[in-house]
Amino acid sequence: MWTLKASLSVLFLLVSLDDTGTARADNPIVQTIYTADPAPIVYNNRLYCFTDHDLPSSTFFNMTDWRLFSTADMANWLDHGTVMSLKTFSWASANAWAGQVVSRNNKFYYYAPMVHGATGAMAIGVGVSDTITGPYVDALGHPLVENNEIDPTVLIDDDGQAYLYWANPDLWYVKLNQDMISYSGSPAMIQLTVAGFGARSGSENRTTSFEEGPWVYKRNGLYYNVFAADCCSEDIRYSTSPGPLGPWTYRGVVMPTQGSSFTNHPGVIDYKGNSYFFYHNGALPGGGGYDRSVAVERFVYNADGSIPQMNMTTTGAPRIDTLNPYQRQEAELIAGSSGVSTEVCSEGGLDVCNINNGDYIKVEGVNFANGAKSFSARVASATTGGNIELHLDSLHGALIGTCAVRSTGGWQTWTTVTCSVSNATGVRDLFFAYTGSGTGFLFNVNWWEFNKL
Ligand code: FUB
Questions:
Q1: Which residues does UniProt assign to the signal peptide (predicted)?
Q2: pLDDT tens, 363-390?
């Protein structure tokens, strides 16, 4: 049962307390908060990744909201903030766990597990939104299904039939109606056999390796179920089938047990001609079993449709596009960072906040082309401010400009500062190094842009 993980996790928590490293690589994809249970979806030529939100120093999966990040280049991730929370569902009381968003009927449906307060059991709710970025509202006012099992995933087949699957310890499915918020027939179990899901080697008393986190999709006529296996620690395995309901054939391990998290959770997607495998681990400082972080690897399917085995890396997926610095960019578009946070901005969207002397943000693949002449940023400060230093290629690389930020009279009192820039040409990684001599936070940043004049 998923409850067993609570006791096993103490070991992982102790290990994670030793993690005092400060390195920020491209994996995990988010450094400002702990994220878990990735659910990628492509919409309008952009890759969105919905995540859970682990709380710092947790001793259980006591999450309260769901987050969204998106990218157009697999390197720079835009923070969209909270898109749904336990407060969205009046009947929910705890455990904002692994969900998935699918698009249909010109709407977006967010299937997510949480505790049904009245029964104390895990139940699956449905959030709905007209836009992918939310906010999502409760589509039903009550759970869609409830049997104390979790981790919903949805497949919409080519014939239009949608299937909701969820799991742990069993694997359930039900046929969703066209409206995506009701179903036909009764929930039924997919039989878990060793031939279908592999033999178990973990500690729990189950026959097959199947544990939780099914991610069901169809590719080139083959149905895939990628899932968290064994417990605990989990690895990631997969099965394939000629149909949405089986018969499933076990195909092997996608990612062995790695990283300082006793759970893992798959999300698989094709984007701009590449295939990506999303997962989570405990790689951020202070990370562990209850403080996880989402990461991604690029992979290539074998000719027979099989998925190659992958390892967790800190380098992540290669960047596949460049960024135009002459268009206004949100400050919360981040490839790597240290120290900073994000918050809701009074001018819309989010801003970057909690900036201290020495903190930084990295943005990758910035295409300066023939050269930038100036830089502008939208900033606010309730203290004496500081400086935004602009460095190329590394945190201490060539300094191309420095923008001074002074007090604006409040953390949400915004003004635009501009400074001159030199020697910024070509495609370069850009580091915003934040400096200042005052104590406490220096300033907030809402957006930035370079100018050719
Ligand atoms: O994040 C809470 C639970 O941990 C998820 O629902 C499972 O898949 C596991 O990752």
A1: 1-25
A2: 999 999 999 999 999 999 999 999 999 9
Burial class (CB in 10 A: 0-12, 13-18, 19+), 390: buried
**Residue 36 CA: which ligand 1 atom is closest?**
1
Alpha-carbon distance of 22 to 19, in angstroms, equals 9
What are the extents of the domains in the chain? 33-299, 329-451
Q: Is the CB of 211 under 6 A from ligand 1?
A: no
This prediction has a pTM of 0.94
Q: What CATH number labels 33-299?
A: 2.115.10.20
Q: Which CATH number fits domain 329-451: 2.60.120.230, 3.40.50.300, 2.60.120.260, 2.30.130.10?
A: 2.60.120.260
Is 297 part of the annotated catalytic residue set? no
Name the residue of 9, 51, 61, 279 whose CB sits within 8 Å of the most ligand 1 atoms, as the mutation to test its pocket: 61
Q: Is the pLDDT of residue 8 over 90?
A: no
Given the residues 73, 79, 149, 212, the one annotated as active site: 212
Residue 438 pLDDT: 72
pLDDT at 155: 98
